[in-house]
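Side project, low priority. Logging it here so it doesn't get lost.
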Amino acid sequence: MTQRTNIDDARGLPKSLLHDHLDGGLRVATVLELADEIGWTLPTTDPTALQAWFTAGAASKDLLQYLATFEHTLAVMQTEAHIERIAAEAALDLANDGVVYAEVRFAPELHVHNGLTMAAVVSAVTAGFRRGEREAAAAGKSILVNAICCAMRTEQRSLEVVQLVERMRDYDDKVVAFDLAGAETGWPPSLHAEALAFARQHHINITIHASEPPDLELIDDALQHGAHRIGHGVRLRSDITTRTDGSLQLGPLARYVYDHQIPLEMAPTCHVHVGAVPDLASHPIGPMLRHGFNVSVNTDNRLMSGVMPSTELLAVATTFDLTMAEVEQLVVNGVMAGFAPLEVRKQIIDQQVRPAFATA
């Protein structure tokens, strides 16, 4: 990466973020404070040790063990006040890290254990995002944060969730898309065909997680059921061959994704943690970017993976020796693949992204 080589400079660049889980991005201090307030027992009350515990679970290369760490974050996200606070902190933390456009996702059904309705959960989240945007603006930072509502693919509430998205978007413009999340192997999108058909029929934006085995089958199933973007998509690499001259030969699915410029929400550190790739140097994001795939850099779960958008962008840029123009393309890809209105996305690029990179 030319010209900018440290984390402070990476933090100063405008960034986009399409794949970030609200319940995977809490501040450690907030987890400790709210757990104490509700009487929830954590693995440790030492902030450094707790961060290490979360990261160890993420780095286990076992998706189910990774997902098990969410028991503790979800425990402190069962009231409107707590949810709104956490959403506001997320927006502010991202703004302070240089993010100008973000979509943060969550599963409403995971926050109803104390009697909240799913609609109340969504309203608390979007209220928190607005509060965080205001606090960021007061500090001289500009960010737009929208919400993606997930249905858990191991459960049976997907139709209920997507119908909630359809109702709420009429009066809350921060609700921008529907997603299927959670354990993937054995739980393909086709199990939620009714919900996905409803989304298509009502012109709801769709992004679907596809990061686990059976590799290409999950990505293909997501596309067949109307996904506009693919959550992760790292395993598309098994349909791509690197020729001796370094160029890429695309199989039929990779060719389809490339030709249709389907956005891939890459989260490199997460992909190392869950064992999708052995290390960052083996990640396909660098070669795919240079080939012209519509890839972007994302965090997935900031708390669990111990990352921020700036650290991820810097890690990718240094690993693949990206030029500033290539870094800018990653950011532009993320903004333009967002589900905000097109005119809003263009404005962010024209007024925030392009000018900043022009002087970088």
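Brief comment: The radius of gyration is 19 Å.
Revisit when time allows.
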